[in-house]
Amino acid sequence: MSDPTEPAKPAHAGTPTLRDLRGLTQARIALGAHGAGLPTGAALAFGLDHARAREAVWTPLDAAAIRAALRAQGLESVEVRSTVSDRTEYLRRPDRGRSLAPESATVLDGHGPGFDVAIVIADGLSATAVALNAVPAAAALAARVRRAGWSLAPVVVASQGRVAIGDPIGARLGARCVVVLIGERPGLSASDSLGCYVTFGPEPGLPDSRRNCISNIREGGLSVEAAAGQMEALLRAMLAQGTSGVALRRGDPAEPKALPDARD
Amino acid sequence: MAYATTIEGTRFTFPDLRRLLAKATPERSGDQLAGLCADGPVERLAAQIALADLPLKTFLAEELIPSEEDEVSDLIARRHDAAAFAPVSSLTVGAFREWLLSPAADARALATLSPGLTPEMVAAVSKICRLQDLVAVAAKRPVVTRFRSTIGLPGRLATRNQPNHPTDSSEGILISALDGLLMGSGDAVIGVNPATDSLPDYIRIVELLETLRLRLDVPTQHCCLGHVTVAIEAMAKGAPVDLVFQSVAGSQKANAGFGVDLAVLREASEAARALGRCPAGGQVMYFETGQGSALSADAHWGVDQQTMEARAYAVAREFDPLLVNTVVGFIGPEYLYNGKQIIRAGLEDHFCGKLLGLPMGVDVCYTNHADADGEDMDALLTLLCAAGVNFVITVPGADDVMLNYQSLSHHDAVFARETLGRPPAPEFEAWLRDVRITDAQGRLTSATGELPPALAAATRLLPGRAA
C-alpha cells in the first residue's frame, strides 16, 4: 500500500486515456468533470438530446405528409385513429391506444375480400422515427410482398396508436398477417428508431407473445432494406407455419427481444 | 368489512381493505390506469383519515390477496413474527406513524421490529407520511450487508457501476466499467444488464467482470443481471458468479410473469452460497423491483401499485439479499406520470424496504416519455441521501445506451461524496485512495480520463493491447 498523502504521479507515456478508447462504446464515457459537475458543453449536449427526445414523443403524426409520400411510392393508403383523444391521454392510457375509434373501423371496410399482408404505420412514441423511416420501410416491404406474389392491403396510417392497434386493423381488413411500423420510445442517443411488429392472424386481445419484433430501424442502426428482408422472412415463416411469436420456428439466430412496456 | 369516514356531514365509505388502501394512496397514474385511485383530493383525505384510525393488527386478520391462491401472501403470513410485533400491536396506523417519528423508534428498536412488520403495514403507514416523514424515519434504520465491501453503513453511499452495452461487447462493457471506476463508482456492485439472455453471453460477461476485478484488485462484487435460471446453469458450469440477480414482484402471478417462483429463487440462492465466494455472514442475492410491474402483468388483484411493490420486498427479504433496488422511473408514465410521482415513489419504496429490513437502494431514473428530467433526479438523489439510501445506480453521462433510459451519472455520486459528505464503502474508499483515483480527502484526483498506473493494467484486457 502506498502513502495516500503522496501526490498522484502522472500516467506514463503510452498509457491510453479513456478518451482514446471512446470508440469502443456509444456510452458517454470520459466526459471530464469540474468538481462533480459536467463540463458545460457536455451538460448542454445532454440537454439538447433530451429536448430532441421529448420533441419526438410530443410531435403529432403528420398523417397527410405520410400519405402523400406513400402515394409518391405508388402505395394506396387510408387513415385511422385510436380512441385516444390527445397525447397526454396517449401516455396515460395504453389500453386506448390499442383500440380503434368506431368511425375508423368503417374506413377499413370494402377494400377487398381479404389480404395476405397489411402494413400499419403508427406514431407510437416517436413521430420523428415515423416521419424519417416509416415510408421507406413500407415501400421496401411492399416491393418484396409484390415479388412474393402476396396480396397487400392499402397501407393504414394510424394516429395515437400502440403496437396492438394492428390487431383490430388487421382483423377488420381480413389480413392473414399484419406488419406494424411504429416509433420506438426515444433514447437520448437516438430518437428516430422505428420498431416493427409482425403478427399472424391478427385479432383484438392477442398477447404480446404472439408478435415478432424487429427493432432499431434507422440510419446508423438496422437499415431499412435489411429490416424489410427480415420482415419478409418472418412473413414467409408465418404464412407457412400458420402462427407467429414465440411459437414461430426460425432458421435465423434470435432476433432482438421486445422490452415489455418499453418499446411501444 | 367496510370502512368509513364522515367529513362535515359527508360520509365516505370504502367497501374493503384493498379499496381503502388504494383510495388513500397519493395520486399516481398507475392506480388511475387500474381504476383504483381516489376520485379527488377530498376522497383521498377521507380514505387517509379512515386508514389512520385502522388498528395495525387488522392486516394480520384480513389478507389483501388470499394465501390459498398466492404464495407471496402465504410467505408473508408464515414469516410474521408476533413477538417482534408486540411493541406496536396495539397501535393504529396513525399512531404507528407518530411512534416511528418519535425518539423511541431508534435504530435498535426499528431493527428489532422489522420481522414483526408486514408489507401491508409499512405500505399503509407510508400513505399517510409526507416526504419529510419518509426521509426522517428511513434515516433512522440502517441496514448493513457485506460481500467484499460493506454496504449501508450510516453516513455512506454506495453505487452500482452499470456498464451496459447495446450488443454486450466485451470491450464496450470493460471501457464503461473503467470509466465508472475512475469516477469512483462501483462499490455496491459492477452490474451489467445483458442485451441477450443466452448462457454463453452470461458466462462471458461474468468472466470478463471477474478478470477486471482480479486484475485491479477491486474490493467489490460483480453481477450479470440475466434471468435466475440462466445464473443457475452458469453456476453449474463453474462460472464465477458473485451475485445472483432477479426481478421480483408482489404476487405469485406477477412473479410467474418474470418466470420465477420462491422455489427457483431458493435454489439459486443456495447454489450461489455454495460457491463459497462470499465471506461467512455475507449475502449473495440481488433483487430489483418497481411500482407498476404487477399491474403490467395483470397480476395486481385490485391492490394499489405501491402496496404491491411493498409485497415484493417480502419476497426479497426471504433470501437475505446483499442489494435490493426499486427501478423507480423506468416503467413509464402510465404508472408514474411525472417527476413529482417518481420522487414520492422512490422515497416510499426506500422507506418501506428499510422498515422491512432490506438493504434498500434506488435506481434514480426516468424515461423520455415521462414528464420528468434530470432536475427531478437531482432532487430525488439529494432526498435519498438524506434518507440514508444504501446505494444508487450510475452510468456514463446519465445515459444508459442499452436500456435507453436515463439513470444517474457517475458525476452524481461525486456530488453525493463531495457536497453531501457521503463516502463510499470503507474498503472501496481505501482502494480508491490506494490506486490514486481519489486523494486523502476523498476527492477525485483527475477527471481527464487518464488512467492511474494501477489501472492502466486493465487496458491490456482490451483487443490489440495484450501485455
Automatic annotation (TrEMBL), chain A:
Q: Which chemical reaction does it catalyze? A: ethanolamine = acetaldehyde + NH4(+)
Residues bound to adenosylcob(III)alamin are 163, 184, 213
Which EC main class describes this enzyme? lyase
Paste the cofactor note. Answer: Binds between the large and small subunits.
Q: Which cofactor does it need?
A: adenosylcob(III)alamin
**Which InterPro entries would you find in this protein's record?**
EutC (IPR009246), EutC_C (IPR042251), EutC_N (IPR042255)
Q: Which domain of life is it from?
A: Bacteria
Pathway involvement? Amine and polyamine degradation; ethanolamine degradation
Q: Where in the cell is it found?
A: Bacterial microcompartment
**Primary location group:** other
Which Pfam families does the entry link to? EutC
Q: Which UniProt keywords apply?
A: Bacterial microcompartment, Cobalamin, Cobalt, Lyase
EC?
4.3.1.7
How does the annotation summarize its subunit structure?
The basic unit is a heterodimer which dimerizes to form tetramers. The heterotetramers trimerize; 6 large subunits form a core ring with 6 small subunits projecting outwards.
What family does the entry list?
Belongs to the EutC family.
Chain's role:
Catalyzes the deamination of various vicinal amino-alcohols to oxo compounds. Allows this organism to utilize ethanolamine as the sole source of nitrogen and carbon in the presence of external vitamin B12.
Name of the protein described by the UniProt record: Ethanolamine ammonia-lyase small subunit
Q: Which organism is it from?
A: Methylobacterium fujisawaense
From TrEMBL, chain B:
Which locations, inside or outside the cell, does it occupy? Answer: Bacterial microcompartment
Where does the protein principally reside?
other
| Cofactor needs | adenosylcob(III)alamin
Q: Which domain of life is it from?
A: Bacteria
GO function terms (MF aspect)? ethanolamine ammonia-lyase activity
Any idea which positions bind adenosylcob(III)alamin? 194, 246, 296, 402
| Complex formation | The basic unit is a heterodimer which dimerizes to form tetramers. The heterotetramers trimerize; 6 large subunits form a core ring with 6 small subunits projecting outwards.
Q: Would you tell me the protein name for this molecule?
A: Ethanolamine ammonia-lyase large subunit
Organism whose genome encodes this protein: Methylobacterium fujisawaense
The gene name on file is eutB
